[in-house]
Amino acid sequence: MAFSSADIEQEASRLYAKLGKLGWSFDSCQAYAPLTLEINQLKKQKNAIILAHSYQTPDIIYGVADFVGDSYALSSHASKTSASIIVFAGVKFMAETAKLLNPSKKVFLPSMDAGCSLADGITAEDVKKLKAQFPNTPVICYINTSAEVKAECDICCTSANAAKIISSFPQDSLIFIPDEFMAKNLSLQTGKKLIGWTAKCIVHQDFNKDTIKSIKSLFPSVKILAHSECSPQVAQLADAVGGTSDMERFVRGSSASSFMLITECGLSDRLRAEFPDKQFIGACSLCPYMKKISLKNILHVLLHEPKENEISIPPEVAIKARKAIQKMLDIS
Ligand code: SF4
Known about the structure:
By secondary structure, this protein is an alpha/beta fold. It has three domains: 5-114 and 290-309, 3-Layer(aba) Sandwich (Rossmann fold), CATH 3.40.50; 119-201, 3-Layer(aba) Sandwich (Rossmann fold), CATH 3.40.50; 204-280, NadA-like (Rossmann fold), CATH 3.40.50. 46% of the residues lie in helices and 14% in strands. It has 15 helices and twelve strands.
């Protein structure tokens, strides 16, 4: 598509208003403007929306996303959209969730390599074995699981609603999969025995308590916010533990001026742009799976709607997996 220099200038200014706060130059915004213009135009023509996870890069979040959030907010939004096409700027299990909630719509994932170490760390067969080992024990699965795994579970949860869902069961002992650290953190929080699995998030497993301790000693007034996928040793040193939406809410409601976010860099970038008067310090970590999504591959799927990028789930799996997600949405 050809755009006039006035269109490009106007789009670059729109991008710069947000990306400039993150250190982007006006020239970089100008270079990206034809891409974001074309994507936004195609979205209108095809009645498509782009749902983006908070860990996506700022050019996607501020350039083309229609809705940005954590897994729960994105699932909930996906269940209500009237768009005909959903392009998911996130990882595969998220796009599958959107498809489960919108079976009649086309859902595209711009890179099929956008996996997740948690989702890839457990199979449906593993869940069947756990159920045989612990009969009559309800199974809660974190949303970071494949559709096949969800189909074997009683209910799904996200980091934003996990404690609420665990507490909704009268039993003292529950199966909680697949995140080992999250199960331990939630067991401490809810007082329930959670029979876990061994999968870990490759981003959050790497934070260690010594880094947090040294940041605390250097900046005593900093508020430490840890994702619930971090180890219990890290979580116990934090001022708050939760999902990305909990972290955003904490920053919004806090009178503190500096924060350390123990999570993926995308969230720090977004909060830096949203709260320019607050300071975000310390190291974050990049999720290589989330970073498989780019403006270029978003444009490619919108233009060509390639079959290999379209999410498809066998009906017998979809019926059972949808029930687990719907139960979560009903409780939350
Ligand atoms: S940050 Fe961790 S949990 Fe999230 S997609 Fe990446 S590997 Fe999976």
